[in-house]
Amino acid sequence: MRESLPIVIPTPSSLGSTDQNYRLSLELMQQKLLLKNYSEHTIKTYVHMFRQFLKYLYPMPLHHVNKTHITKYHLWLVTDRNVSVSYQNQSINAIKFYIEKVLKHPVTVYELERPTKHKTLPKVLSLIEVHQIIEATRNLKHRTILSIIYGSGLRISECINLKIIDIDSSSMRIWVRNAKGKKDRVTLLSNDLLKLLRDYYKIYRPKKWLFEGQTKQQYSPSSIRQFFNRAKFKALGRSSATVHTLRHSFATHLLENGTNLRYIQKLLGHSSSKTTEIYTHVCTTNLTDITSPFDLLNKKVYLKGK
Fold it and tell me: For residue range 271-305, what is the model confidence (pLDDT) as tens digits?
């Protein structure tokens, strides 16, 4: 973004007070996110991130803001608040959305430097650990939720968005609709999971959503995290695993069982194979098939003739 390019909408309203302009910018951003059919989670995140940026700027008039202020803000986030790389990227995405989608400035007008992502491997549970966590979940609804997240490789948002009609027992598959990236896909429905789902349905009789709360609304992500953490602590004690770890474990266990990486990519709904390839780094099957040079030394392979 050019130094002189202000990030404020050039309308008569920009002549009002700073508080009015800040409120207007947030309202317009939220409206645009809704019109573009962004998920509720993304809308909350973007609005929150942009609101934090405005708090940092206050009481500076928006028409004075330029690239330098944006850069200084993200430098402050890193040096003073010590935020994560993910937080930095979400903040940049929110500001980019406001500039490009609300103000309609072209992408080529500005450049925002992004932090380098740490190449960390996903946390993965063993088959035994997954079994222990599910077994520690006595409530049938809770057990079914964790089972379908692991057994079908779902995100939390995909799980709570499932409807009864998405369970296709005739083809033994689950329809995941309007998932991340606004894409539909199909994933696995195992025989054991289908039996569990039928037992669950007989008792709870959901009306619209497959998993409903007490008021028949969608089950909440926070509730899933809470009972997962209880079961995890009961089964494993202290562990850094999260609900999303079940999805990572699903992919890794498929790979260890010989499933083609391309099929795993489709089941997970990844746009790029590079995203799926990270599971090759945590898959242990291939490692067990490799002989260490140290074992060769013990077998005196290298010492023949001496």
Answer: 778 777 777 777 666 555 545 554 554 555 444 55
pTM over 0.70: no
Query: Which superfamily does CATH assign the domain made up of 12-109 to?
Result: Tyrosine recombinase, N-terminal domain (1.10.150.130)
Decide if 216 contacts 208 (C-beta within 8 A).
yes
Residue pLDDT, tens place only, 13-42 = 444 577 888 999 999 999 999 998 888 888
Distance of CA 36 to the CA centre of its chain: 19
Helices (H) and strands (E) in the chain, counts: 14, 3
Print burial letters for 77-91: b (CB count within 10 Å at least 16), e (below 16).
Answer: beeeeebeeebbebb
Residue type for 145, please? Answer: I
User: Which residues are tagged catalytic?
Assistant: 155, 180, 244, 247, 270, 279
- The CATH homologous superfamily to which domain 127-288 belongs is Intergrase catalytic core (1.10.443.10)
Q: Which residues, including other chains, have CB under 8 Å from residue 74's CB and lie 6 or more apart?
A: 88, 91, 92
pLDDT tens track for 256-277? 888 888 888 888 988 778 777 7
> What Rg do the C-alpha atoms of the chain give, in angstroms?
25
Start-to-end C-alpha separation, the chain:
69
* Secondary structure letter of residue 301 according to DSSP: S
